[in-house]
Amino acid sequence: MRTVSIKSSHELSRFQTYCGLRGDWLTQKLSQLGISSQIIGCIRSRGISTLRPVQREAIQQGINGRSLVVTSPPGTGKTLIGEVLGFHKLQTNPTKKTVFLLPLRALARQKFRELKSYDRLGFQIGYTTGGQDLTSEAFDATDVLVATYERLDSFLRSWPEKFNQIGTVICDEIHEVGGASRGPRLEALLTRLMSTSDPPQIIGLSATIANPEMIANWLGASLVVTTERMPLQYHLLISTNKLATINKILIKSMKKENQVLIFVNTRSEAENLAMRLAQKNQSYLTRAQIMEITEKLSTHFLPQLEDPTTPTASNLLDCARRGVAWHHAGLATSERIAVEEAFAQRYLLILTATPTLAAGLNLPASTVIIKDLKLWDSRWISANDIHQRAGRAGRPLLDTEGHAFLLASDEEELEIADKKYFYTKQGEVLSRYEPITSHLADIESLREQILTRIVQCGTASRQDIVKMFQNSLWWAQKQSEGGTEHIDAYLFPASSPQYSLRIRGTPDRAKRIVGTKIIQKTPNRITGIVSTKQTQCTASFDLEKGAYCSCSNAAGLLQKGILCEHLTYLADKLLRTKEFFHAPPIARTLYELSPIYYLQNRGLIQEFEGAQYEATPLGRLAVQLYLKPSTMVLIRDSILTKPVRSQKEALRATLIVFQHERRAKIPSSLEDGIGLLEKWLNGLPYSQILGDQGIMYPGDLEGLASATTWLLSCLSRITNTLGEQLARYSDELHVLAKRMSEGLPENGVELKEHLGLTRRKTMALLRGGIRSIEELKAIPPEELTELRRIPGIGNRTLRVIQKALATTSST
Description:
Rossmann fold, 5 domains, alpha/beta
C-alpha cells in the first residue's frame, strides 16, 4: 500500500483565525457592511461568531444588489452568504421575495430547518418541493421560499407574472446547470429570471466549477473564488484488498471517536459493505458505545420507519443497532430521513452511501472513504464528483481537519487519478475540477423552452424568442468559442440547406466516410450507399417519408434533431454539386428537424402573419403541467387512440409515458408495474407489495407512486380539454391521483388527512374496522382507548388521534 497525501495549502492556525476559533469579529464586520443587528443576532444564535474571508468578500461584493458567483470548497459557509444577503434585501425592500433554490428535496428540508433561526425577523418562510403543491396565494403570503429547481420552475410557468415579485435568488449547487438531464431546465429558469423587466439578484454557489468566469459572465455577476477551507488531507492509496484497507482506516478513526462516511457506486455495495462492517463492530466500538447507540435508536430511529417489516428495513435496523447503516435512493423516504438524522446526531458512526449523500448535505463526518475511482461500467468518476464526495469530510467549528481516502486498485490507477483529480500551481497541490457546459442545445430542450417562452409572452415574435436564448449560458459559450452561426438557424428553419446542415449534421464524424455511391436520384428521392472502412450503410432522403439510414444510430439521432454521419455525408456531397433538382428532399428533412416545425406540426403552437407565434390550448397546458412537448404529444395521441376509461388503463398509460421519458424506475413488464401500483392503491405494506422480487426497493416504489400521481393529475387535466366524451373521466382520474399520492383506498385518504397519521397507521385503523372519520367521531372520548386493541395502534398513535379529534371538534 502506498500513500500520497495532498494537504490543504493553508495552515491550521490560519484556518482557526477565520473560522471563529479565535476572536469575535462578527458584529463589527457585518455592521461595517451594513447588515442589521437583528440579522447578526440570528447568525450568532447558531453559534457563528465571525466571518471567513470568502464570506466577508462575497457579502461586500453583493451588498449593493449585484449578482454573485461564489466558488469555494465544501464547509466554507457559502450558504451563509446567501442567507445574509437574502434577508438584508428583504429588510431593505420587503416587497420582493427571497428564494433559496436547491437540487434535492433532502437539501431543501435541511435548509428550511436552518432558516428557522431567522424567525425572529418576522418574515414568513415557506417550503415547497415536488411533493407539496404551491398555490398563487401561498406564494404571495411567503417572504422567503425554499424550493427545488423544478418546483419553482413549474410554478412560474403557470404564474409568469410572479417573476417580478422575486428580488433575490440563492441558487445552491449552481454547477447542476451543466447536467445533461436537469441542467437545461435550470439554465432556462435562470435565463428567464434574468430576462424580466426587473431582474433579481442571483447568487450562485458551488464548490466544483472549473470555469467560474464563464458562469459569472453569463449571469452578469461578480466572482468570488477561494480554495481556502478547513485543512482537508487527501490520501491516495493503492489497495489490493479494499475491505482490509477500510478496516484499518475505521479502527484508527473510531479510536478518535470520529464518524466515517464511505462512498460506493451501487446500492448492493452499500448494503453488503455495511452489513460486513456491522459484523466486525467489536473492532471499532466498545460495548458501552453499542448499548448507548441501541438505546437512542430505539427511541428516535424506529418510530420514523414507515414499514419496518421489509427485508431492507429489517437488515438496516440490525446494522444500525451496531452503529453502522447505509444510505441510497432505494430506501423509503422515512428510512433515508431516519438515517440522515441518526448520523447527524451521532447515533450512527459509520455510514456507507451511494452518491445520494454527495450533493451538499451537512453531515458530521470527519473522514470520507471513496472505495472506487471508477464506476461499475469502468468509466472514471468525474473530478467534480470526487471532490463533492471528499468535501463531506471535516466539520467546521468541530474538527481541526478532514481526511479523504481515495482507494486505487493498482499503481496505474493511482497515477491516472493523481493527474485527473489534482494539479500543482506555484508549488501547491490543488483540486482539479471540470468545466460546466450547457446542454440547452439538445433538440428536446429547445422545443420545450421555445414553447415556454411563447406561453410566457402570450404572443411571441421571433425576436422575443431569440432574445431569451441570447441570454442563455448555451449562447454565451457559443460566442466565447468563436462560433459564427446565427442563433435563428438553431431555432427556426434556415433558408439555406447547406447552412442548416452545419447545424443539424455531424460533420466531424462524417470525416470517417471514405466514399459514397448514388443508386437512386429523382426530384423526390435520393438514395446512396455510404461507406466507412468497416461498414456500408444505405442512406436516403425522401420528400414524403423524410430521412432514413440503415445504421444503428440514425433513428435515435433523428429524434434528437440530428443527422447521422452517413446522412450528413450524403447531403453534403449532393448539396455541393451544381445539380439542385435533388435538393428539395434534403431541404425538407432539415426543415422538419427544426424545433419550431415540431411544435407547429404537433399542434402545440400556431404561427400568424409576420412570424408571430401563439401557443394552442394544448401547448399552454403542456407548459403548465411541466410536460416536455414530446410527452404531451404522446399522451394526447394515446388518449385519442384509446381513451382512459378504467383504473388499469390509466395506470398503463402512465407507465407507457415513463418508458418514453425513462422518468421513473419501473418493472420491465407493464403488467407487473400495474400490479405493483394496484397493491399500493390498496394500502398493502411495502413487504407485501415488493415481496422478494429484488428488483425494486421501497424508495423506487415511492418514486414510481409519486411520478404516477403527478402524471394521473396531468391526465385528468388533459382529458378535460379533449371533448365532452373524454372530459367525464377527468374527476375519476383526479380521485385516483389523490389515492396514488397517499397509497390508500378512497376512505383511507380521508382518514389520513383528518388524523395526520402515516399510511401504515391509517391502514391499521381500516383493518381494525374504522371505515371513516365519522365513525371515529361517533366513539365517546372515554372509549377511544379501546383503539389500542387494534394491532399497530399504540399509545403514541392514540394520542395523535385524540388530539386530531379534539381539534376537529373545537373547529
